[in-house]
Amino acid sequence: LNTGNDKVAFALVNNAGAHLSENGVQKIIESFHENESLMGALSSRPTLPAASVEKLINVVSKSLSDELKKK
Q1: Taking each helix axis from N to C terminus, what angle separates 22-32 and 50-57, rounded to the nearest 10 degrees?
Q2: What's the confidence (pLDDT) of residue 12?
Q3: Long-range contacts of 40-45, Cβ-Cβ distance < 8 Å, separation of 24 or more
Q4: If you ran DSSP here, which 8-state letter would residue 45 be given?
Q5: Which residues of the chain have pLDDT under 50?
Q6: Residues 29, 55 contacting (CB under 8 angstroms)
Q7: How far apart are CA 4 and CA 17, in angstroms?
Q8: What is the model's pLDDT at position 47?
Q9: How far apart are CA 29 and CA 17, in angstroms?
Q10: How far apart are CA 19 and CA 56, in angstroms?
Protein backbone atom coordinates (compact mmCIF):
# COMPACT_ATOMS: atom_id res chain seq x y z
CA LEU A 1 0.00 0.00 0.00
CA ASN A 2 2.90 2.31 0.58
CA THR A 3 3.77 2.14 -3.11
CA GLY A 4 0.71 4.16 -4.08
CA ASN A 5 0.10 1.63 -6.84
CA ASP A 6 -3.59 0.96 -7.41
CA LYS A 7 -2.82 -2.41 -9.02
CA VAL A 8 -1.17 -3.58 -5.79
CA ALA A 9 -4.11 -2.32 -3.74
CA PHE A 10 -6.59 -3.97 -6.12
CA ALA A 11 -4.78 -7.33 -5.86
CA LEU A 12 -4.81 -7.08 -2.06
CA VAL A 13 -8.48 -6.12 -1.88
CA ASN A 14 -9.44 -8.99 -4.21
CA ASN A 15 -7.46 -11.53 -2.18
CA ALA A 16 -10.20 -13.17 -0.11
CA GLY A 17 -7.62 -14.64 2.25
CA ALA A 18 -5.95 -11.30 2.99
CA HIS A 19 -6.70 -9.66 6.31
CA LEU A 20 -7.09 -5.91 5.89
CA SER A 21 -6.55 -3.90 9.05
CA GLU A 22 -8.68 -0.86 9.72
CA ASN A 23 -5.62 1.32 9.04
CA GLY A 24 -5.02 -0.51 5.76
CA VAL A 25 -8.61 -0.03 4.64
CA GLN A 26 -8.49 3.65 5.61
CA LYS A 27 -5.27 4.11 3.63
CA ILE A 28 -6.82 2.46 0.56
CA ILE A 29 -9.86 4.73 0.78
CA GLU A 30 -7.77 7.87 1.27
CA SER A 31 -5.30 7.03 -1.49
CA PHE A 32 -7.63 5.61 -4.12
CA HIS A 33 -11.07 7.11 -3.42
CA GLU A 34 -11.37 8.22 -7.06
CA ASN A 35 -10.81 4.66 -8.36
CA GLU A 36 -14.41 3.45 -8.63
CA SER A 37 -13.38 -0.07 -9.57
CA LEU A 38 -11.18 -0.41 -6.50
CA MET A 39 -13.81 1.13 -4.23
CA GLY A 40 -16.33 -1.35 -5.65
CA ALA A 41 -14.01 -4.26 -4.92
CA LEU A 42 -13.42 -2.96 -1.40
CA SER A 43 -17.18 -2.57 -0.90
CA SER A 44 -17.66 -6.20 -1.92
CA ARG A 45 -15.48 -7.59 0.86
CA PRO A 46 -17.62 -9.59 3.30
CA THR A 47 -16.43 -7.68 6.36
CA LEU A 48 -15.12 -4.18 6.87
CA PRO A 49 -14.54 -2.15 10.04
CA ALA A 50 -17.54 0.06 10.83
CA ALA A 51 -15.50 3.28 10.66
CA SER A 52 -14.22 2.25 7.23
CA VAL A 53 -17.74 1.55 5.97
CA GLU A 54 -18.82 5.04 7.03
CA LYS A 55 -15.86 6.62 5.24
CA LEU A 56 -16.39 4.47 2.16
CA ILE A 57 -20.06 5.44 1.95
CA ASN A 58 -18.95 9.06 1.60
CA VAL A 59 -16.74 8.38 -1.43
CA VAL A 60 -18.61 5.78 -3.48
CA SER A 61 -21.48 6.03 -5.92
CA LYS A 62 -25.10 5.88 -4.78
CA SER A 63 -25.51 2.22 -5.76
CA LEU A 64 -22.41 1.14 -3.85
CA SER A 65 -23.44 3.30 -0.92
CA ASP A 66 -26.82 1.56 -0.74
CA GLU A 67 -25.08 -1.83 -0.78
CA LEU A 68 -22.70 -0.82 2.02
CA LYS A 69 -25.54 0.37 4.21
CA LYS A 70 -26.90 -3.20 4.17
CA LYS A 71 -23.76 -4.49 5.94
Answers
A1: 10
A2: 94
A3: 40/64, 41/10, 41/13, 41/14, 42/13, 43/67, 43/68, 45/13, 45/20
A4: S
A5: none
A6: yes
A7: 22
A8: 87
A9: 20
A10: 18
